[in-house]
Amino acid sequence: MSKGFSLRGWAPVLPAALLAVGVNTFMGPCGHGGRCDHAGLVLTLLGIGMAAASLAAMLLGGKIPRMALYAAVALAGAAAFLTPGTLVAICGMDTMSCRMVMRPAAMVLSALIVLSAGINVWMEWKKGK
Amino acid sequence: MKFYDLPKRNLARKPGRTGALMALTAFLALAVFGGSVIVMALRSGLGSLEARLGADIIAVPSVAASKVSLKNMYLQGTVGAYYMDAEKLEKIRAVEGVEKAAPQVFLASLKADCCSARIQVIGFDPGEDFTIQPWIAHSYGQALRNQELVVGSNITSGVGDSIRIYDVSCPVVARLAPTGTGLDTAVYCNMDTVRLLLRAAEEKGVRHEITSGNVDTMISAVYVKVRDGYDVQRVNTAINRVRGVTPTRTRSMITDVSDGLAGVSSAVTALIAVVWGLAFIILLIVFSMMIHERKREFAVLRVVGMSRRGLSRMIRAESAMIGLAGGVIGVLAGCAVIFPFNTLIEQTLNLPYLLPGWGPILLLAALTLLLSLLIGPAASAHAARRLSRVDPGTILREGN
Question: Which of B64, B88, B259, B298 is the least buried, fewest Cβ under 10 Å from its Cβ?
Fold first, then answer.
């Protein structure tokens, strides 16, 4: 079984970890128990899940399990992209921290995750063709 | 084999070096594209502020002028509510040189829960107004009826939604285009609506400092248009003699903002120039070292039949590919920072900030890519020229 510790393997891990940590620190919602805090919680859980799944993909051998994990990470990334404001409601003013910082940061990081996980799925599929 | 196959393979052989060079050109492209978009947005915002102010002079109650900054209301959307008796309006109209004087009434809403915010409510008289009406007319061509609201672009409620202010439900009939100023967080209504909301506020126990007059007769500000041929400063001084009123020339507000903008613009331009200067020197050094390191490889290519010109073209193609790829990454990174975080940049700069349209942005992106495409060949030209003049036999015999 071969292990895939490589730059492209780490590519989805880092933004996912940054998403989970960031939403609870410098790019989070206001923290007063409003609906945007629910969005923050969902993003935290998704971030942790995506980081764990990407790490697991690096540790696992086998083309199919890795492809499945990266595909799951890509889907979770898409969910994270849609979470603030679409799947989970956030505050009503553009100048509030959930709209000004959390939402754009989540969108950029989840776009990176979807892109890197998608590339990993393709690279794994190409291997051994 | 196609012409670009060999440069592509050469770059793929050394992923670390290629990646580092691409990162450098990406940083250059980010500096140019991002810095230029910010400067363009600041200029757009200043133009928008000038257009939206509309009036030559804004007169507010003297007691408020010391507590509330009118400039902050326009730049940051700071919520303000202050009042004076409507008789001040008549006194201002009587000042020589005043062509038009239109009243407005301000009201600050409450913050209901953590996910709501205080918003500025601005009531205007459609029959007399000359600052808000022309702007609203772009988005809503009908007269505002009682309780109807027109909202600024940063208010997320859309047409058909309702906003509850002091428990009065007000339907939203239009949403204004962004202005890049604090006016984007305000809502607009007619005088009857704002007076209704003031009464509703008083019923809820929210007291507003109406020191003279009553809800039906007081106003918050008077917007003044000076007649042609009259000096704005003199009219401003004359209005200042009206007791209890402090006038502000809008030109001075715009000049302050313009000075701030000039400072930011100079800083960004200087930063871009320094970054490009340094990066060009770095690229010059790196390409020289790279070409020197590969001279035996180039000598072999010359021996097997590649012409001097072909060798030079190959080197220029490699550096152009690095530049273009780095440029694309830099422009995309710039887009990922500038557009999603637009509101954060606006709030941080504390200046009017209005992103330009897609046309200028696409043109700027294209120019940035062109610069990135050219910087690589420019940096490698000298070293490539020197190498092509050296005898390949001499290079291959070196070290034997």
Answer: B259
Measured CA to CA, the distance from residue B147 to residue B168 in angstroms comes to 8
In percent, the amount of chain B with pLDDT more than 70 equals 91
Give how far B53 is from chain A: nearest CA, Å.
22
| Distance between CA atoms of residues B331 and B29, nearest Å | 6
Within 8 A of A11 by CB-CB distance, chain B residues are none
* pTM tops 0.90, yes or no: no
**Measured between alpha carbons, how far apart are the two ends of chain A, in Å?**
17
Q: Give B145's DSSP letter.
A: P
Residues of A near B (Cβ–Cβ under 8 Å) read 30, 32-36, 90-96, 99-101, 103-105, 107-108, 111
State mean pLDDT over B365-378.
91
Among the residues of chain B, which ranges form H helices?
A: 5-13, 15-53, 62-67, 70-75, 87-93, 133-139, 191-203, 232-240, 250-293, 295-303, 308-338, 342-349, 358-389, 392-397
What is d(CA B168, CA B181) in angstroms, rounded to the nearest whole number?
Answer: 27
State the Cα–Cα distance between residues A107 and A99, nearest whole angstrom.
Answer: 11
Specify the pairing of strand B218-219 against strand B84-85: antiparallel
Torsion angle, CA of B337/B339/B344/B348, rounded to 10 degrees?
80
C-alpha A96/C-alpha B77 separation (Å) is 13
pLDDT at B117: 65
A100: nearest CB among B113, B185, B347 = B347
Reported confidence tier of residue B285, pLDDT bands at 50, 70, 90: confident
The answer, yes or no, to whether residue B297 has pLDDT greater than 90, is no
Residue with token string 């500025």: B120
Q: B85 to chain A nearest CA, in Å?
A: 32
